[in-house]
Amino acid sequence: MDITTLMLILSILIIFIILMILYSARYIFNQESPSTAGKSADMKKEEIINGYKAEMETLLIEHKDDGMRCLSEKRRTLHRINRELATNIFFDQDDVKSVLTMLAKY
Question: Higher-confidence residue: 40 or 56?
Answer without folding.
Answer: 56
